[in-house]
Amino acid sequence: MRFAIVGAGFSGAVVARELAEAGHLADVFDTRDHVAGNCHTARHETGVMVHTYGPHIFHTQHEHVWQYINRFGEMMPYRHKVKAISQDTMYSLPVNLKTINQFFDQDFDAQQAEAFIQSKADTTITNPVSFEDQGLRFVGRELYDAFFAGYTAKQWGVDPKELPASILARLPVRFNDDDSYFNHPYQAIPKDGYTPIVAAILNHPSIKVHLSTRFDPSSHSAFGEFDHVVWTGPIDAFFNFEFGRLGYRTLDFVPEISDGDYQGHPVVNYCDVDVPYTRITEHKHFAPWEDHARTIVYREFSRLCGETDTPYYPIRLVKEKEQLLNYVQRARSAKGVTFIGRLGTYRYLDMDVTIHEALLASKAMLECLAKQQPMPSFSVDPMV
Ligand code: FAD
Ligand code: UDP
After folding, report:
1. CA angle 148, 152, 158 (to 5 degrees)
2. Ligand nearest to the CA of 267
3. Domains in the chain, please, with CATH?
4. 40 closest CA partner among 331, 321, 384, 283
5. Above pLDDT 90, what percent of the chain?
6. Angle between helices 351-370 and 63-70 (to 10 degrees)
7. pLDDT tens digits along 183-242
8. Residue 341: closest CA among 3, 7, 4, 2
9. Which of 174, 316, 342, 347 is catalytic?
10. pLDDT given at position 170
11. What pLDDT is attached to residue 171?
């Protein structure tokens, strides 16, 4: 069979590879002039490897995903640490023993810190629904206001009361000195960046990559050449925004180049609402195995995504979930197309999850082909 794969990010590349290895042909399209989607990295004139669309740290608990990515490039051990500035003081995030002791000017051990934070937590919130509920329930008012309320208002552009608890549930709270940002057992950054890894996944004789090429789903000629389409672009774009545009946040990165070291850390978050940016990323610290005399930082500003902007974070509030349901129902009745990935399912997915889900989708498609059944519209339910 001949497949059109729309999008050359991790989702599209992994599906293309799986289908090609099973004996099919895959034409991969991307509007951008490079592969790797939002994970794209490029060497800057300073010599620093820059994460073009924002900081990307690979982390996973899936052994099979870890094995998969290691087939295509060298992964370097990397433990991500984040600093956060609140009211001109620098702390470490996620909230851990050091943060608690520094913030409350105490010298607690783990047990004392846990008991103290429990005394601050709002235990009347038994089932946190909103972002604010989650914060007040797990860290209490002072820490919530210092680290989460302002940053989140800037990042998402809405009152944290309107956001789901799941966004904050991404971050752990610890009562020990572990200040690693992620809990996952496998954490790494590719030695040569993400783009060569995705290029290696796509490097197969049955895969043809068409860069700087938009695939127009309404063009019958484009469809006619292919037996099936795998769509990793925005689901609403596939249906020509029939039920309105799904809301996204986009980011503006303002670069600054200087000599030496700018902030000594890969990422510093700015939690106060009166600082207009959310964080500053210093790219060279993602590659501590490299040495560079100069440095480049990105100041990151978040705003609502316009029609010509890059969609970064799906907003998924009540209104968007209702729109999404319309698109999902429409997709389930459409023939010859499978939707996957961050934009195709309108979900806040990390890289490892996109790889995992792309492997699942490929398996499901190949099983359907073997049984001569129609291929699925989704391999996971985007509404969950
Ligand atoms: P994408 O990478 O978005 O790829 C989709 C591609 O489809 C795009 O290249 C687009 O150009 C193309 N496309 C769309 N429509 C068309 C069309 N009509 N024709 C042709 N091409 C089209 N994950 C982590 O694991 N760790 C992190 O630290 C991390 N940090 C992140 C930081 C930021 C700022 C953001 C926004 C995301 C972060 N992520 C992180 C998530 C990560 O970027 C995604 O998981 C990953 O990019 C999803 O891959 P994808 O292939 O599904 O989508
Ligand atoms: N967050 C916050 N303050 C911080 C860091 C994160 O309020 O200093 C909130 C914010 O709403 C963010 C969410 O926690 O969207 C998840 O954080 P994460 O670092 O996972 O966000 P990402 O790196 O994906 O932007």
Report:
1. 135
2. 2
3. 2-74+189-244+315-371 (3.40.50.720), 82-168 (1.10.3110)
4. 283
5. 94
6. 90
7. 999 999 999 999 999 999 999 999 999 999 999 988 866 668 899 999 999 999 999 999
8. 7
9. 174
10. 80
11. 86
Tokens for 230, please give them.
Answer: 């795998």
| Amino acid (1-letter code) at residue 268 | V
The residue whose CA is least distant from atom 3 of ligand 2 is 148
Cis peptide before 185 (omega within 30 of 0): no
- Report whether 377 contacts 334 (CB < 8 A): yes
Query: Can you tell me which atom of ligand 1 is nearest the CA of 358?
Result: 52
At 65, list the tokens. Answer: 């995903």
Q: Are 184 and 60 in contact (CB under 8 A)?
A: yes
Phi, psi dihedrals of residue 267, rounded to the nearest 5°:
-135, 130
Catalytic residue status for 32 = no
**pTM for this predicted structure:** 0.97
